[in-house]
Every structure is written in C-alpha cells, then in structure tokens.
Amino acid sequence: MKNNFLLIVWLLLYCSVANAQYTINKNLYIGKHVDGTPVKGTFINMNNKFSGMSVLRHYILLQDSKDGNIISYVFDKNDLHQVAQFKDNNDIYLLDDGYFKYKYKHTTFYDFQGKKLYTLSMQPVWHNDSLDVMIGYNHPDYFFKGDISAFHISTGKLIWKQKIPHRYHWPWSDVTKDRKQKNILYLITDSLVKLDVLTGKTVKMPFTAGMDEPFKSRFSLVRKRPIYRTDWKEAYWCCQPYIDSNVLSGTHSNSVSSEDSIFIADAKNLYCLDMLLNKRWITPLPADAGSKSYLIIQDDKILLINYGIAFQKGLLGHCGKPFVGVYDKHTGKQLSLTMPDIKNKISDGLAVTGRAYWQDDTGLMFNNQGETEVHRIDWKAPVKKAKSKDEEDECFYWPVDTVYQYSQGSMKPLVTDAHQLLVEANKQDVYLLKDDGTQQKFNADSIFSTKSENIYYNNAEKRTTYLVTDSSKKVLLVFEFEGILIAGDKGKLYAALPNGVCVIDSQQ
Fold this sequence. Notes:
Shape: globular
Structural class: mainly beta
Radius of gyration: 25 Å
Largest sheet: 11 strands, antiparallel
Distance between the termini: 30 Å
Strand content: over 45%
C-alpha cells in the first residue's frame, strides 16, 4: 500500500514545463460524479517544476523549482489570492502571520512581506502557532545532551529551558497530545515524560525505552531490512539513539488511552497511569522476555503482543521472547499468557483484534486470544525478479490499512472475519490468506485503501483512481490522475498534480 498522507504533506513531484510564472484556471475538469457529470476545480499551474505543497489552516504553500532555486508561493485557502512570494532553498514552515526557515544552527522568522523579524540559534522540533510556542535545541551539542528551550513565536523571547535526556529514544518521534489540554505533551524518552509546553514543567515516570547491552549479549541480528508497519517505522528510523553502539532501543510499546488512563509497556512491566503519570497499577511481564510490543484495548481487556525484536545501530534483531498476554484493564490482572515456541528469528509481527501474528523465515504463525496453541500458515510471499535477499525482503509486508473493494456503488471491506489476513507482495499484488494457507490474489487496480475518512485510492503504478464517499461509504466522486488527493476542511479537496494543485469543492 502507499503511505497514508496527512493533511500537512510534502510531495516530490517533478515535471518539466515552460516558464516560472504561475497561472490560475478556474474551470479545470478534474473528475466526475458517479452519474457521469463533470467535477470542476480551480487549478494553480506552476508551469515549471512543481516541487512541493503544504496545506495548512489558512494557506496553501506551493513551491516552484527553477535553475536550482525554489520559489515559494503562499495562497489563501478560501479565495486563492496570493498572500506572499519568496525565494529560498531552505525548509519553510508556515505560521498564521508569516513563516520561518531552518538552516543549520539557525531558525529565522519573517512576515509575509519578507521582512526578517528575528533569528534564533536553535533547531526546532515542535511548534504550535495557536499557543505561540516553539521548542528546539539551542545547538547541535545540546541536541545530544537533551537540553531544549521554548520561545514565543510572536516575539522570539525565551520562555523556559529544560533538560530531557534521550539516550534510548528520540522523544519527538512519538508525541502524544493530551485530549483535553492542548499545552500538555507526553514523550517517550529515557523516562515517560509529561511536558507542559507553556511552562516547561515536567513530570517523569521511570521507564525502560532501551538498555545498555554489549552488541552480541542479548541481541542476535536478523538482517538489516525496511520495516513497513507504521508503528515499527517510527522505531526503526527515529528512536535510534545518537550516542553509542551498545544501546539497545525500541524495547517498549505504543501508548494507548482509555477514559482517564494511559497504558504503556516497557521491557519489564505493563503500566496503567493517570493523566498525571501516577501509577494506578503495574503488572510485571515475563522475565527477560520483554521487547518491542504493541497494545490493543478490547472492551475491558488489554491485549499485549510482544514481538521479540529490538533495534541497534539501524539493525533489527531478535531480543527477548515473543508472547501474547491478556490483562484486565481495571486491575492489571493477567488473564492469559501464551509464549509460542519459535526457534527461528522473528522478522515481523502484527496485532489484530483477538489475534497475534509473527513472521519468520519459514512462514507465518498466529495465536488466538485465550488459546495456548500457536498455529502455522505455511505460506511465503511470491517473489518477482528479486535480485538479492534484501530485495526479497522488500517484496513482502502486511498492510496496516483496511483494504476495500468498489462494489455496487459503495466501498466494501475485503476482510470479512478474523480468520483472514491481508499481505502485499511485490508492492503491487495483495493476497487474502485463510487459516489453512489457501489464498486469493487481487491486483492492485481492483482494491482500495483509505487515506482519510472518505477518500480511497488504488495502488496503480502511474494514474491513481481516487474515490470520495459520504459517511455511509457510498461513492460520490471519481478522480483519476497522476498525483495525490488530500482532504481539507469545509468539504475542500486538494489534488497535487505534476505541475500544480487543483482545489475542488466536493459539496458543489
């Protein structure tokens, strides 16, 4: 499946055309209604090398590449009038009243007229325009030490300084926001940290996001390989420590919240915390078994899938033991525990409702909640023209998204019960596997993934089909083009095409 795109998205689309000045066409035929009538949009044609787009609260940022230079255009989202234009090759971030750019060691702020407001010696890692706060590292040396500072975006004045060590996990790769208080963030670092971005006040809960280990003491390598699972990608690319090679990282779970509690696991324990990080209960995990894990809340139960892997120097390897634990959400009491006897090195894992999957070099295994037996599916992904073992690894992964078919005017989920598993081979074909190993193959053109609540797309190589539905999954609009379709607010759709962006009012 293609990666899901957020509302804020950077695209790298290249197409050679005539000149550098943009033009606007208000009547571009971009798609059709299901009854065949055309859908029109307003097209901003960049007429050169369209290199990027960002859609923010009030603005559209388009970037036009010419002769190695990038020209940025800022348009109002509502009436598409040009707000600003500037030339810069650095990273640009839009604010409500201007923008800032980051270049090694320095972040500079401008208004939309191009006037420089101030410069800070810092590397930004988080900002919130509505709270008037930016957080960053003052200098590369402090980056390693964990010394951070917060500034008012409007003035550049210092608000607070704080030290948040991150030997075992990069805190800004997995930020959890408080649902009620916009100023509160939860960070996984060397501890579990509650941070008030307005004051710098922190509350820390001891937590084992990693450990110091000799390279081959507890950790045996599987292979360097890409990881496609969303929750693993964060661990693989972002949580790697920056200090030394004897650090083992990723030995923790995702965090999940239910009502007024936060649940998270490390290599030793499963925790239930209140929103102030006070411990409500702690349940020990099997000794020397904890590793990268995943939590799912099912009614009054917590399902913990321990994958038996961790990360070291950009490598994935075997760590601990795979197991499945079921726990009472209110008390932490262990209701069941299954430790499958897997001799081979685990290379992947997946948690679904009521079931855990593992992959090793011999095939797939699964364990049902409440059962002790581990079942095996003797199936391996077909490989097309794999030139190496590493390339073969890249030809197989489990889609995180629910996959749909277009049937009788609506989107229907492909998986109909818990006894089915979707896998994708060769980044193109999708297989629906049953418990007994039988399979059904689907071509990428015939199935769709969801990228937002009402936008679905197929996995075609060039021209992608996008289907837009209502809340009942009834298809309303059909688009087919080379590019990306994303949803905005108030029924607006934004189509990023090879040479510009088209703004569509889906309600017309």
